[in-house]
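ok new one. same drill as before - structure tokens go in, u give me an amino acid for every spot. 283 of them this time. try not to just spam alanines like last time pls lmao
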């Protein structure tokens, strides 16, 4: 039933879906005090205090939801046609020519779902994901996201081994690096001036010899005109800088390019169960 309904939604033109998504995003912002508080606090902490950016960020979150049926259920050729340009393709070409595996870090910025699909359309891709608790939803997501060149790896030890094996085959892997990890799988690192529990896996893979680390996001074009995929190389590690802080700094720079399309309502600064206290809080 759900697949049938969403398959109908997927046929709706993207400009109309993005318009509906903006309304949905504003409605969620108006109706959820918790979400509204997270969005405002996170924006203000990053230096964005104007109402215009808040409205744009709320609308972008709704567009992210509305566009999912299009990305998941339309024929692959139609989805690829929505990508109007690729800015930074030369970084991918250089890594491929050197025979390196590629670690793609795609934060919750723009249409991160289509970014992974574009990569998988060109070469094998293994994406790390955290399965939802509902069994039926997990089955649906796995069915829609995975295809010939796209494999999904659960966020557990087996999934980590799959990522390492893919890189050893000089393939690509994809990770949402700003997703809060479970306790014991991260460390505290500065993110927009505040301590955020940050996954060490993504930072470790970014340091892997013989692999290239690239950051990517798909910027939504105005009026539902499609997307521009933007790819950036990871900056070099500075003296005294931890790998997790370097990664967070690179994500910050990426978000600064397109701040209105970041998922600011995500509770990035929560402390998951089992995580150590931030040093400033320790006795």
């Amino acid at each position: 039933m759900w697949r049938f309904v969403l398959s109908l939604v997927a046929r709706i033109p993207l400009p109309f879906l993005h318009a509906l998504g903006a309304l949905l995003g504003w409605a969620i912002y108006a109706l959820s005090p918790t979400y509204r508080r997270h969005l405002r606090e996170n924006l203000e902490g990053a230096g964005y205090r104007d109402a215009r950016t808040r409205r744009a960020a709320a609308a972008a979150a709704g567009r992210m939801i509305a566009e999912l049926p299009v990305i998941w259920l339309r024929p692959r050729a139609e989805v690829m046609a929505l990508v109007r340009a690729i800015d930074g393709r030369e970084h991918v070409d250089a890594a491929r020519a050197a025979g390196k595996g590629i670690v793609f870090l795609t934060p919750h910025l723009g249409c991160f779902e289509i970014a992974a699909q574009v990569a998988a359309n060109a070469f094998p891709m293994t994406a790390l994901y955290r399965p939802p608790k509902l069994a039926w939803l997990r089955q649906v997501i796995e069915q829609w996201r995975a295809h010939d060149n796209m494999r999904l790896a659960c966020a557990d030890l087996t999934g980590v081994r799959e990522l390492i094996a893919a890189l050893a085959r000089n393939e690509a892997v994809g990770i949402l690096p700003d997703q809060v990890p479970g306790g014991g799988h991260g460390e505290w690192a500065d993110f927009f001036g505040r301590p955020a529990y940050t996954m060490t896996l993504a930072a470790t893979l970014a340091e892997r010899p013989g692999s290239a680390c690239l950051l990517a996001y798909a910027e939504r074009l105005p009026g539902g005109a499609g997307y521009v995929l933007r790819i950036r190389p990871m900056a070099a590690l500075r003296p005294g800088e931890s790998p997790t802080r370097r990664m967070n700094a690179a994500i910050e720079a990426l978000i600064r390019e397109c701040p209105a399309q970041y998922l600011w309502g995500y509770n990035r600064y929560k402390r998951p169960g089992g995580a150590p206290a931030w040093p400033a809080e320790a006795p």
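The two ends are 54 Å apart (CA to CA). and btw The first strand starts at residue 83 and ends at 87.
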